[in-house]
Amino acid sequence: xxxxxxxxxxxxxxxxxxxxxxxxxxxxxxxxxxxxxxxxxxxxxxxxxxxxxxxxxxxxxxxxxxxxxxxxxxxxxxxxxxxxxxxxxxxxxxxxxxxxxx
Length: 102
Hints:
The chain is α+β, with helices and mostly antiparallel strands. The protein has a domain at about 1-40. It is built from 3 helices and 5 strands. The strands form 2 sheets. Strands 1-2-5 form a 3-stranded antiparallel β-sheet. It has a two-stranded antiparallel ribbon with strand order 3-4. The longest helix has 20 residues, at about 20-40. The chain is extended, with a radius of gyration of 20 Å.
């Protein structure tokens, strides 16, 4: 799903808002999330999941094409851990759609 599809779905659910207003709301939410993660704050959305920053150490890797050693600098990466209700809902939906294998 893209951001524009998300905005369209939200406009369908909440017809009191225009597409432009909903776009500003979604952008504000994402900007708030970016700011929180930039400050190393954890984001917890109950029933959905948690976002937090993981620090990755610098390492030496290999270019698979040439075999040459390449230095990879230390970096920060976003880690998402799915919430139990969301995980359960995903697996129930998947189980009901998958064919029974016997």
